[in-house]
Each structure stands twice: as structure tokens, then as C-alpha cells.
Amino acid sequence: MLSILLLLLLLLQSTLSFQVHRHHTYQRTRCDRTFTALNVHHICHKTLNIQGCIDFYSLFNYTVSSTFRASSAQCAWLRCNNTSSSNPIIELIEIPKPFHNKVPKPPAPPLTETPLIPSYNHVAFLSPLPLGTYLPSLSSVSSSRFSKELKILQPPTQKQIDREIWEMAYVQGPDSTVVELLYKCATLPDGVGVE
Question: InterPro entries from the xrefs (predicted)?
């Protein structure tokens, strides 16, 4: 279902030009009609080890809000503990044990050896601190809570996107998923740095 929605979104983007406006409203440039964007409810992650994922996402202040079953799969919804947050839910679906040997575990991408390929699926979290400070702290918490150091796939680098300077790094999550950490360093004044 998600694949179909993504395909439809890609088709829409290729035929229409959208402009993002502040209050989560998109406006078509080919006609006068406007429509409100849909909010993201949850992001789904299939896993071989649901508890390992629960532990990992707790590093980002997510905790279990609901557990349920879908067929024979154990599932959990994780919500961010930040009460002012409108972050989407992370839905975890544990692949049942009889199917574990039928699911190939992909290796983590070698981001430290080759540049990041933008097509890697990943989830991104905003860091409250510069990544040079936040990553060692996060790794220390991971070591003390779970006896596992955080695996850094790509150390912090800076990139300018429009007028904003972002610091970004990539770490390995459960089941070799890629997790991006972002920190907004600065916003350039109007007319500066945008080509």
C-alpha cells in the first residue's frame, strides 16, 4: 500500500509543480485550487528483533505506547516522549521466527568508504546539540544502557540546503537500517548563498 502511495506521489510530482507554503499547505502552480497536505501518522520498520529496535529508538526518546499482533507478527507503536512534539509514530513489526531464515539481512551500507547514496532508505532525527557533542553522548548512553556502542556510518559533515547550513551524520540502527542525525547550524540572511 505504501509503495502505491509513493508511486502516486512521484507521478504527481512529475506532472505538477508544487510550492511549499508555511502552514503545511501546498499550492499547485497550474491552477488556483489549493489543498492541505496530509500529516504523517507513522513510519513502519520490519525487524527480526523487536526488543532491539525498542531499545535503539529509546535513545531518541521514543517509548512503547501500544503493542498488538498483525497475523502472527508482534507489533508495537513507539511515540516520542516530547509532549510538544508532533513526531510520527514508529511502528515496529517483528518478522515471525519461522520466517527469519527467509529474510536476508542486508549489510549496512559502507558509508565511511563511499559517499552516501541518496536512495538509501533512512529515518532522520533532529539533534538538540551540534553532532560533535551529541554523537559521543548518544554513544555513551547506548553503551551504558545496552552495552553496545553506536556504529557511526558517516561522521558529521556540513551541507548548505537553500539558506540553511545543516550538520548531518549517519549511524546504523537495528537490522542495519540507516539513521540520519541532523543539526541546523545556521540560517543565512536573505539573498546570501542561494544560487
Answer: Glyas_Bleomycin-R_OHBP_Dase (IPR029068)
For 85, the domain range is: 40-97
Closest by CA to 89, choosing from 70, 105, 76, is 76
- Tell whether 68 is covered by a domain: yes
104, 95 contact by CB (below 8 A):
no
Q: What is the pTM of this model?
A: 0.64
135-186 confidence digits (pLDDT tens) = 999 999 999 999 999 999 999 999 988 889 999 999 998 888 888 999 999 9
CATH of the domain at 113: 3.30.720.110
Same domain, 120 and 148: yes
